[in-house]
Amino acid sequence: MSNALFQYTLRLGDSSLILAQRLSEWTGHGPFLEEDLALTNIALDTLGTAKSFLEYAAQVEGKGRTDDDLAFFRNEREFFNPLITEQPNGDYAKTMVRQVIMDVYHLYLYKELAKSKDTTLSGIAQKAIKEVTYHVRHSASWLERFGNGTDESHQRAQDALNELWQYTQELFETPGSEKELLAQGVAVNLQDIQAKWETHVDELIRKANLKKPENVFMQRGSLDGIHTEHLGYLLAEMQHLPRMHPTAKW
Predict the structure, then answer these.
(1) Which pLDDT score, from 0 to 100, does residue 246 have?
(2) Neighbours of 246 (CB within 10 A)
(3) How would residue 1 be classed by pLDDT, with cut points 50, 70 and 90?
(4) Tens digit of pLDDT for each residue in 184-226?
(5) Burial level of 105, CB count in 10 A (0-12/13-18/19+)?
(6) Alpha-carbon distance values, 199 to 6, 101, 134, 196, 216 (Å)
(7) What is the per-residue DSSP string for 6-44?
């Protein structure tokens, strides 16, 4: 079970870590000051959740590695974040469409994970729920703002939705290694939250007067450590300093 729990916790941490890295790229580049600060704070919340998961993953692994080791000294084939989290930010509409998808996903994921029989995972989730509830409200308001704004803002939001939808099904795929964790009440049954996620996201899309993409070929691969070309470039930037100065402390 320890290896399965390590892989499960690692995947949860990777999801938040890579998303936080993408969001942090907006720091200093937001559309206006208040929004720049808001998204930076969301990035920090997401990074804090990632740190908690990776700290626990390192503890479960029991090989003397730390959360920093897991974040900065693995290559892309050793990361298991969903493909959607590594996609480039694009314009602000694309970032917010991606954020809506992930925020609603994390909301229902953490609500179920808070019931886990693993008290550490449950505790991390309970703390994260409070933060992600705000994140959902924030990104949903932007989706509605873009969708019901100008013709250009509406089209940009629709284009982003069309591009990103191909990565959504992967969020609900479960590797065979998690069957034991599911049976023991440790892991979340992703099929149980998929319907709630779909209902919530469909409603947000409707309020924004956007159209849900149909008959989309779904991309997958992250459960096996297979990623798009974007992750390698993201990791090169994120890991550059620790790899250049692995013993540095600050």
Answers:
(1) 86
(2) 11
(3) low
(4) 999 999 999 999 999 999 999 999 999 999 999 999 999 999 9
(5) buried
(6) 31, 12, 19, 5, 18
(7) HHHHHHHHHHHHHHHHHHHTTTTTSSSHHHHHHHHHHHH
Q: Hey, where are the domains in the chain?
A: 2-211+220-244
CA dihedral 28, 30, 32, 38 (to 10 degrees): -90
Residue in this structure with the two tokens 């550059």, named with its chain if needed:
240
Q: Does residue 249 carry a pLDDT above 80?
A: no
Q: What class, spelled out in words, does domain 2-211+220-244 have in CATH? A: mainly alpha
Is the pLDDT assigned to residue 140 strictly greater than 80?
yes
Are the CB atoms for 181 and 8 separated by under 8 Å? yes
For tokens 């947000």, name the residue.
204
